[in-house]
Amino acid sequence: MKFGCAHLEELRQELHSGHWPAASSPELRAHVGCCPRCTQEVALTVHLRQARLEALDESRPEPASLIWWRAQARRREAVLARATRPIVAAQAFAVLVVLAAIAVLAARNWRAVVGHALAAPTSIASLVDLWGLAPMIAAATLLTTLGAVAVYLTTDRR
Amino acid sequence: MNWEQVIPSVTASRESPPAETAMGNDEFAAFYDRSAKPLWAYLARTSGDPALADDLVQESFIRFLTSSPALDGEVACRRYLFRIGSNLLRDHWRHHRTVSIEELPPELSAAPDLCAQSDSRLTLSPALAQMRPRDRQLLWLAHAENYSHREIAEITGLPTASIRLLLFRARRQMSRLITRGGER
Lengths: 158, 184
What we know:
The complex is a heterodimer. By secondary structure, chain A is mainly α. Helix content of chain A is 79%, strand content 0%. Chain A contains 7 helices and no strands. Chain A is rod-shaped. The model of chain A has no long low-confidence stretch (mean pLDDT 80). Helices cover 73% and strands 0% of the residues of chain B. Chain B is an all-alpha fold. The chains are: A mainly alpha, B mainly alpha. At the A-B interface, helix 3 and helix 4 of A face helix 2, helix 3, helix 4, helix 7 and helix 8 of B.
């Protein structure tokens, strides 16, 4: 397997600097004429350089200012996401605490609530008993409201 | 709730460029003018899709600006940019074809519109279009951009030791395709 040739580096430099073939030495030109590896190198490089020049002409890049602006916008988004990450985590934690508090409250007072719901408030005495549940209902309402606010703040991306 | 009122640094970044940006606006504009076209040429000829190259060039520059690596000099910056572009192209092929760029059949990524646009392409371009994207990538970087094996390895993410062999195979395959094309 033949990877290279002793003249390859010299030839590459000539090709890259634009000296090939006019400004190249007669020895190198003679060598390239009889070396398949160097002939291949010249053919590939000349062709691909030509293809590159044609592609450069075809290229119509966007204005640099537009790319700059988009990069700034993306960077701001990243900064914002990084900065709000602990806040979002705290809000999620708050939602969990509120939900847990509601669950504990409901579990503790489940029997009283069911009892009052089943018993028809036919007398004034039973209506007065209902006042006993007022703090619990107020606490549940407050927790639900706080939970809703916490959910809103967690999901609000703006 | 508007968090930008709570976090002053976020609001401040709106008015002035972020402090971590490696390049200033003017410096970037100059770099962009010199690098956008070569990057487009590389991506368009390697992928065979000029529209895709447009998108990838934009994305490459945006990622270049947002990543802010500590690079020394324009040559290193351009190499890094080509690396981003190569990674994006590889990701594109992975997502859209569900095979790696190495295994991609040439006909799926061949660029028919690249051929026969000028006399210089009549013999070599059909051969180039029949090659695998990875081989086109290597040949372009080595011959059109004149990158060394080490630089090609850095751009493509391939081991430096394998570049020499892969380029040898790509050149040999191209020579075969040219010979086959010439016999027809």
